[in-house]
Amino acid sequence: MRTLLVIAWLLLSLPAWAHKPSDSYLSLSIQNERVEGRWDIALRDLADAIGLDGDGNGQLTWGEVRNKHDEIRAYALSRLALSVNLQACTIELLEQLIDHHTDGAYSVLRFRSDCGRSIERLAVDYRLLFDIDAQHKGLLRLTQGGRTSTAIFSKESPVQEFSIAQWSRWTESMQFIHEGIWHIWLGFDHVLFLLALLLPAVLILAEGRWQAACDFSSVWWNVVSIVTAFTVAHSLTLSLAALDVVRLPSRLVESTIAASVVLAGLGNLYPMMISRRWLVAFGFGLIHGFGFAAVLTDLGLPHDSLLLSLLSFNVGVEIGQLAIVGAFLPLAYLIRRSWSYPRLVLTGGSLAVIAIALVWFTERAFDLQLLPL
Fold it and tell me: Are 175 and 313 in contact (CB under 8 A)?
């Protein structure tokens, strides 16, 4: 019953994360006493925050966005502060433009900040959208003298300070490892796909019926092959996409990820490749790898920073996956012989996964919102 209650809770709550997470892109370039900035904020996020659709027809026009320029400026700049030695820097907006990223149209704010003194340590206070979207992230690219540093702002870490003389690659790496872990834990389509592959891991198919696996060793190596295949494939396409070798439309990628979750769930109900589930994990992992790549690509990092970010992020993904396996596998192994595991956990869990993923696929493929969450 507890398992069924958890499945029911997931079915009701997970569609809220069906779409691409909210991100903005902040680029700062330090030049002596001044900072040149560019801030890309998704129009869909601004529409949620201040309302842009003047006629309420669900379609934004350039005229509607232009009419809201003053409100966009006031809203955004009131949520960003730069300072040097606790002294605030003035921010002057230069122009507002529109640009297109892989996931849609963005408002671009170009600005200049005068700090009145040589900048050796720059503090950035970022508060955009956190009051209405706790999962929002602000991705920063900071450049000075040909060197580039990156950082990620979240509701938990909205204020960060950067030493211009001493660039910490370790700090950058740890941030992206942290993001890789949360990418898996909060990327519920990835979690459901992985769980769909893990559900039958403690069972074997004999004469058309599910039976409990005999020993933990065989179960463990089966799971290791699945997780490793998924990680390798995920890392491969993430790297290819972020390096701009391969680029796919965001809607196609997100829709295909949802479809892969549906197929993974169906594979448990109609097992055909149960002995080679690592191949399934690898094949669909190739698709899942494009999910985060668009974010790094849109940030426009140079190759040295991009490679460090990719490596760190993939390490975080692997840690996040191992945590999920560590929480799931021992419990599943202990109850694998009960009558409820193949009937309720495997079958019921797979049906719930399929239902959730079908909602996601419909919303992503046809740009709909089926549930008001």
Answer: no
Q: Do residues 11 and 34 share a domain? A: no
Q: How many domains does the chain have?
A: 2
Q: Residue 34 — φ and ψ, nearest 5°?
A: -120, 160
pTM for this structure? 0.72
Give the tokens for residue 167. 């660039």
Q: How far apart are the C-alpha atoms of 334 and 272, rounded to whole Å?
A: 25
pLDDT tens, residue by residue, 123-165: 999 999 999 998 899 999 999 877 888 888 989 899 999 887 6
**Which domain, by its residues, includes 160?**
23-166
Angstrom distances, CA of residue 323 to CA of 9, 21, 48, 168: 21, 22, 34, 27
What is d(CA 125, CA 161) in angstroms, rounded to the nearest whole number?
Answer: 9
Structure tokens belonging to residue 353: 């996964």
Bridge partners of residue 253, in order along the sequence: none
Nearest C-alpha neighbor of 193 from the set 353, 326, 342, 329: 353
The predicted-structure confidence for 71-122, as pLDDT tens digits, reads as follows: 999 999 999 999 998 899 999 999 999 999 877 899 999 999 999 888 988 9
159 and 260 housed in the same domain? no
Q: Report residue 176 as tokens.
A: 């992206």
Q: Stretch 362-369: mean pLDDT, rounded?
A: 80
Is the CB of residue 177 less than 8 Å from the CB of residue 315? yes
For residue 354, being part of any structural domain is answered with yes
pLDDT > 70? residue 25: yes
Question: Are 134 and 205 found together in one domain?
Answer: no
Largest CA distance in the chain: 78
Contacts 24+ apart (CB under 8 A), 147-154: 148/301, 148/302, 148/304, 148/305, 149/305, 150/175, 150/176, 150/299, 150/301, 150/305, 150/309, 151/124, 151/175, 152/176, 152/178, 152/179, 153/26, 153/124, 153/126, 154/130
